[in-house]
Amino acid sequence: MTAMSPLTPQVAPVIDAFLHTPWLGGDDPLDPRGDVVDWRGDTRLQRVMRTFSHTDPEGRPVPSLTVEEILSAMDESGVSKALLPAKVYYAATDRGVRAVHRELAALADASGGRLKGVATIPPPELGPGTYWDVMQTVRTIKHAKHEYGFVGVHLTPSPWGMPPNHKWFYPVYAACVELDLAVFVHVGTPGPLWPMEHHNPIHLDEVALAFPELRIIAHHIGDPWTDISVRLAARHPNVYICTSAWSPKRYPTELMEFMQGRWHGTAGSNKVIFASDFPLLDMERAIRDARALPLNEEQLRSVLHDNAERLFWPESPSIRP
What we know:
Oligomer: single chain
CATH class: Alpha Beta
Number of strands: 8
Number of domains: 1
Order of helices and strands: EHHEHEHEHHEHEHEHEHH
Strand order of the largest sheet: 4-5-6-7-8
């Protein structure tokens, strides 16, 4: 068996591939972000979103983090770079979505190249019944790519009312292939009380078959269907698993065996990308626990850094020690 040993920060640089962006950056009251929803006065959303409470001990909303605070947290945790995926769960206009992109781009521009943005699309207003101007999503994506240099598109199927293999998303996937953008898709049991079925990673099999060039990032691992996520990552060259929103101490057994190369000999550590979902999870603790995972040096470096750099920072590959 390969010897396992945690690595020092100097030997194992880290890229955090998924930060929780609704709590990051500024806003313009004259052109507000579409990802900021105050559910304190809505009993339905209070029930659905109870796991996402982000308040101080007195119940007041915690202020969003500035770019200086984000970079400081990264420095303290040994993170060299991070991705900022836009998240819009509920009804939002195209203008509101573009306002999210604007604020994330401002963070990226002020980061000295350490942060990159990931776009999203206006949520389909009627779920599967949304039938008008599907190409608006494509125009929004193209704007994020050409105006801000974003590197991906983030989709949240469950609150939008349909699985990721629904025909409504196919223009998005085609545009992503043409623009060389990755697609981040939420898989697994959602934290909010949304229906689970749309986040079953099995739906991504059809997408990967239809768009073999499309880089698909199944984020949040996929539990209780982790075995399916693993099979998809092993089966499709461009499907990856992202560990966002999970403590490394709680990674499912199927994922650990995959990263260790114990799933039919597949080099699973080449198909897994580390992420914390900071500030929803504590970045420093997540990375400390990730460094202690029972992986060998090469496997750990691939998961913590190299896979994400290859996918999202190909212009500046690190020199391996």
